[in-house]
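hey so i finally got around to running the thing on that chain from the lab meeting. sorry it took forever, my laptop kept dying and i had to restart like 3 times. anyway pasting the input first so we r on the same page abt which one it is
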Amino acid sequence: MAEYDLMKDVDSDSFSSPGTFAEDGLGGEETQAKDTGWVSVTSSMISAVRYVSAEGLMYVRFVNGAEYTYAVPKQVFDGMLGAPSIGSYFRKNVYNRYRYARS
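ok and heres what got predicted. didnt touch it at all, straight out
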């Protein structure tokens, strides 16, 4: 069964989510990651991830080029890196569970 890129055809304004950074006033430049510290991953859905402990934020770069920021605990990030399938772990443990913002 092929994995489907959840972010590929989705307009970020139409996302349903537990909440977004924009709703909380946390979106914008201050949440964008600099292009350093990225970890490349093997996935048909996600190309790289980054975690900033001081902010409690995980940055995700999808294979389609979209970048999103998720407010997740460090153990969620660590779990994703150690998972047999990064995309499956993301869909089960991050997608629609944590606040996010498009970077």
